[in-house]
Amino acid sequence: MFDDFLFALRNFKRNRIRSILSLLGVIIGVASVIVITSLGRSASKSIKDSYSSAGLDLVKISAGFMRRGRDTSVTFNEAFRTELFDAVEHITKIAYCNSMSVTLTKDDTSVNGSATAIEYGYLPMCGLTLSEGADFTVSDGVTGQQRVILGPDVAEALFPSGSAVGQKVIGVHDSVSFQFEVAGVLTESASGIESTANAIYVPRGFYAKKIQPSPNASSIVVQCTAAAAASAVAENIESFIAEKAGNSYAASVTSMQAMLEQYEQVTGTVSLLLSGIAAISLLVGGIGIMNIMIVTVTERRREIGIRKALGASPAVIRTQFLIESALITGIGGCVGIAAGIGISAAAAAVMKWSFAVDGNACAAAFVFSAAIGIFFGFSPASRAAKLDPVEALSSE
């Protein structure tokens, strides 16, 4: 068996160009499978890391909407906060939020966006950090200070040549102007709650004093005792709100844990489907291997005749050619795996994802490529095994 392997390796080197050309289908197929599975795993890992740093223990509640001319929503006032704490277990914090359209202007530059009025402690609760400056204080919320925290893209647009912290910007909402002091700039991230790139945050106390006195929240973020409890908490909140409002449309309740699980399920399905499509090229490569092995058997008829005349059995001849076919596709599998990993690493670096290789996919791709060689090499190997030694020796 080992001698057959060495002989197959020597024959591969002897016909190097022809063997490499016959491997292209296998290399492309394996590389495609590795790229698809690795990028899918990398994307999933990046999203999971993002959620893990901020989000898996959070549940977001948004107010409902009008249905058939009837207001089906529930009121998010302070009484609701107390009732929610009492009715649902495993809740550690509840943060109320309000949204408002705003146009921020500095000199001749303006940025249109949606500002979120938040309570003290909202940013650390959601895992959001500042690249410079400081978070709002308790006093900012109580006194309704006109301060603002900007996302990195907003800060860059308004202050392209210097630090935004401590600078003044003009904010316009419903034709009313306010002067804000920039308290801080967020670190760019895309957590389960929201992306920070274009975020604009103001103290909820400012919203209550200058925009809408004693406002009901438009959305709520709930922090659970642990990420594992988030799905159950979300279900209990849905039941509580439906019972309180008398309908199932009163609010939209979203668990970040459930969103992540759904995302992983979708990416896994898509990766599996695309891998199956990419694997078709392996079959095409296998047909190429079969063709090249048929040519090899034809070229080596005299060699086969001599081996049979010296006592080699049909099984030995068949094994020799099967090993040669499996070796060729195995080499193609290794090259394809290396190419796939390299392409995946480069693509992950460009997209700023955490690079992750699916070891199971690599092992499966190698085994499948070798199996392709054996499957498509069986017919040529059997033809070689059935050759009559006299006929084979007289062929040249």
UniProtKB/TrEMBL annotation:
Chief site of localization: membrane
CC terms in the record's Gene Ontology section: plasma membrane
Keyword annotations of the record: Cell membrane, Membrane, Transmembrane, Transmembrane helix
Listed transmembrane segments: 20-40, 272-298, 327-351, 357-378
Compartmental location: Cell membrane
Domain MacB-like periplasmic core span(s) in chain numbering: 19-239
Stretches assigned to the ABC3 transporter permease C-terminal domain: 277-389
Cross-referenced InterPro entries: ABC3_permease_C, MacB_PCD, Macrolide_Exporter_MacB
GO MF entries: transmembrane transporter activity
Membrane topology (UniProt): Multi-pass membrane protein
Protein family (similarity comment): Belongs to the ABC-4 integral membrane protein family.
Protein name: Uncharacterized protein
Organism: Treponema brennaborense (strain DSM 12168 / CIP 105900 / DD5/3)
